[in-house]
Each structure stands twice: as C-alpha cells, then as structure tokens.
Amino acid sequence: MVGALGRTPARVDRVARPLKRWTVNLITDPPRGDAMPLLDLLERAAAQIEPQVRSQLGGFFGGMVAAYLPQTWEFRTEKEVAALTVERAGAVRASAGAATSPDVTVEAPEATLAAALTGGGRSRPPAGTLHVTAHTSKGRTAFDYLRGRLGL
Question: DSSP characters for 87-143?
Fold first, then answer.
C-alpha cells in the first residue's frame, strides 16, 4: 500500500493512547507549594464572580438579583480575615481585614476554605468544618443560593 506522498506508511506496532486531559483553571487554581493567602483567593474568586453577576443583572431577573445587593461576606481562618463585597452595579472586590457590617460570616480552617474556593463547587467541605453566620436575611438567602457554586 502506498501513502499519499508515494511512500509506504511506516508500520505501527503499538496502539496510540489518548492523551490525558488536564483542566487547569488559571484564575482559581493556586500554585503548588505554600498556601495562598486568603485575600489572593478572594481576589481570584472576585474575578470569576463579577462577570457572572453583571450578566445576571442585565438579564430578565436583573431586578430580583439587584434587590440582594450590595452584599458583603466576611471570611475568617485561623490566620486571616478578609471580605468579599458585591456592589449594586455588579462590581466585586476583595479587601483585607474584617468587614464593618457583613451580611454573612464564613469561618473555616485555612486549608478547608482554600479547597472550597479553588474547587469551583466540585466538592463540599467535610461536615462541621465550616461555620456560617448570616447577619441579614438577604445574606441568608444569597448564601443558600450560592453555597454550592462556591464550594461551601
């Protein structure tokens, strides 16, 4: 049998195996090695959340979404405290330190919170490792709706 280039094709003795597919989310996957600071994790989460919030605000249910904004969630680990705020226009920002009046406070060990925030909702933290306090009714509603998407 002669190939397209006029040569006999080389014999293949082994079956080609499909390549392993690796999915790496460059926005949320932390570098390997040292733990990523909480503020960095929240800044990366903010970069992913903002386009989604802005899209929902412009959609059919935009008025319902806007009713729950602005919203601030405070995250606490054994080492750090940082906050994630979603403004009424959909801007999302992370800030170091405690929030003045959070809608929700999430307390968890550093490793548990890092795994939840970088996992994209693929798995939830083990029972009892996450303590959530809703300080407002809009915070409770938003947390109940978003907890799976955030891996919490």
Answer: -TTS-EEEEES--SS-SEEEE--HHHHHHHHHTTTSSPPPTTS-EEEE-SHHHHHHH
Inter-residue contact 62 to 56 (CB < 8 Å)? yes
DSSP H or E run through 81: strand 81-86
Are 62 and 53 within 8 A, CB to CB?
no
Nearest to 41 by CA among 72, 69, 76: 76
- Here the CATH number for the domain that contains residue 62 is 3.30.1050.10
| Residue 88 is assigned to a structural domain of this protein | yes
Peptide bond into 70 cis (omega under 30): yes
Using a cut of 0.90, tell me whether the model's pTM lies above it: no
61-79 confidence digits (pLDDT tens): 888 889 999 999 999 999 9
